Amino acid sequence: MFAVVVTFEIKPEAVAAFTDLVCHNAETSELLEPGCHQFDVCTDPGRPNEVMLYELYSDAASFDAHRASPHYHVFTAAIEDMVRQKTVQTYVNVRQGGAEA
């Protein structure tokens, strides 16, 4: 498996709209992308402007297909003015032979 963790810092006035858009993107990804196995949208009440995504894909190619999908491009364009900062980290499962232990 290939894990992706994305953290967004959202402008305070855009949190509700961003949350609706990211949840729709997550649902669409799970529905339309065979390589997308999990797409969680997470928040912490103590940090209301932060949204963390936890995504699981079959492999890096499946994540690349996600980023090439039409719904991803629509989502990215729609949130452009809502985001203050975005970080993306990727991981491979070492127990599945994804990297040397």
Automatic annotation (TrEMBL):
It comes from the Bacteria. PANTHER family: ABM DOMAIN-CONTAINING PROTEIN (PTHR33336:SF3), QUINOL MONOOXYGENASE YGIN-RELATED (PTHR33336). The keyword Oxidoreductase applies. Gene3D superfamilies: 3.30.70.100. This is Quinol monooxygenase YgiN. Keywords: Monooxygenase, Oxidoreductase. Residues 2-92 form the ABM domain. InterPro entries: ABM_dom (IPR007138), AI-2_Isomerase_LsrG (IPR050744), Dimeric_a/b-barrel (IPR011008). It comes from Thalassobacter stenotrophicus DSM 16310. PROSITE patterns: ABM. SUPFAM superfamilies: Dimeric alpha+beta barrel. GO terms for molecular function: monooxygenase activity. The lineage of its organism: Bacteria, Pseudomonadati, Pseudomonadota, Alphaproteobacteria, Rhodobacterales.
